[in-house]
Amino acid sequence: MIVTSHSDSVLSGRSERWRVWSLSDGYIEMAADLLRDPQNNPVPQAAQAGALRLSVNCFALAGPDVDGILIDSGGGGWAPTVGRLEQTMMEAGIDSASIAVLALTHTHQDHAQGLLTPDGRVLFPNLKAIIMGEGAMESFLAERHLARFRPLLKPVRNGDQVAERLRAVALPGHAPGHTGYAFDTNEDRFLFFGDIVHVPAVQFGDPALSWGYDDDQATARATRLKVFHDAAEAGTWIAGAHLGWPGIGHVMRKGEAYDYEPAAGY
Ligand SMILES: [Zn+2]
């Protein structure tokens, strides 16, 4: 397996049979008081920081029996600081016309709006399926300007096989139907976990801290703790939409908390 950045530099790799690309869509700035303690109060140190800059990452997968799969599509024209996916895919040498399956972790603007480029073009002209947790369907169907994609929607439940080697993992709490995707190459295991972490600089060290836009903070917190625990035990690569570039790394147990080690070498 090889992990590469959009500029195709190798981040980590043992064999070249499998490849995961981290594709930056840009970034978003969010108010720092969205970081919340377990009583849903803003965290004082963070609130003083004013704004937080969150990476927006998408991921593409390829291998002998895996091709044309993209996880999340970025923000498209939602904000001026996102919508770079078309460019970063070109830099990575990935033709957007080769994408057949888009697996969405959820339907928030910074994940689903990238189906359309900032200037309104369809970015993936040969898309055959848009996978999402069944709980995310309603919010997608409410987006009228995405109506043309409705015939492609394929709702999944926890454990469903999405494609070769790719399985849906329900990760409840952040948004309706929030779903991760587990990718197993027999050499490495990945979990593309969407919005389990928004502020990597603090949430690995204090996983009890939540995000103001988590729909159900207690559930989101429990899910985050389970994901960290399981990924640390199994040595699973984690890949997050808002982890700092390159958005892929390992989580390790550190006392009562965790540490995060990004894929290095880029
Ligand atoms: Zn997000």
Given the helix and strand composition, which structural class is it? alpha/beta
- Enumerate the strands of the largest sheet in spatial order, edge to edge or round the barrel: 2-1-3-5-6-7-8-9
Q: Which band does the percent of strand residues land in?
A: 25-35%
At the fourth level of CATH, the homologous superfamily is: Ribonuclease Z/Hydroxyacylglutathione hydrolase-like
Q: What would the principal axes of the Cα set say about the shape?
A: globular
Distance between the termini: 15 Å
Task: Could you tell me the CATH topology label.
Answer: Metallo-beta-lactamase, Chain A
For the biggest sheet, the summary is: 8 strands, mixed
> Helix segment count?
6
Count of strand segments? 17
Bound molecule types:
zinc ion
Please compute the radius of gyration using only Cα atoms. Answer: 17 Å
**Residue runs with pLDDT of under 50 for 5 or more positions:** 7-11
**Helix-strand sequence:** EEEEHEEHEHEHEEEEEHEHEEE
Main CATH class: Alpha Beta
Number of domains: 1
- For the record, the CATH architecture stands as 4-Layer Sandwich
- Give the averaged pLDDT, no decimals: 91
Helix content: 10-25%
